[in-house]
Amino acid sequence: MCFEAADRETVREFYRLALKLGGTDEGAPGTRPNYDAYYYGAFVRDPDGNKIEAVTFVAK
After folding, report:
1. Does the structural domain 2-56 have CATH classification 3.30.70.1710?
2. Of 14, 20, 16, 19, nearest in space to 2 by CA
3. Could you tell me whether strands 2-4 and 51-56 are parallel, antiparallel, or unpaired per DSSP bridges?
4. Predicted TM-score (pTM) of this structure
């Protein structure tokens, strides 16, 4: 499941809250230039094992 975030701060907040609420790390917030030059995302697994991503293409 993928959610588009408004900006990079929102991606970081998604990641922080997901881990706090029991999710596990699947990829800390950061750029993924192999996906796209402006791709900034974070990946977590929820307690049920679903992989969830928050992503933005905003440059800052």
Report:
1. no
2. 14
3. parallel
4. 0.93
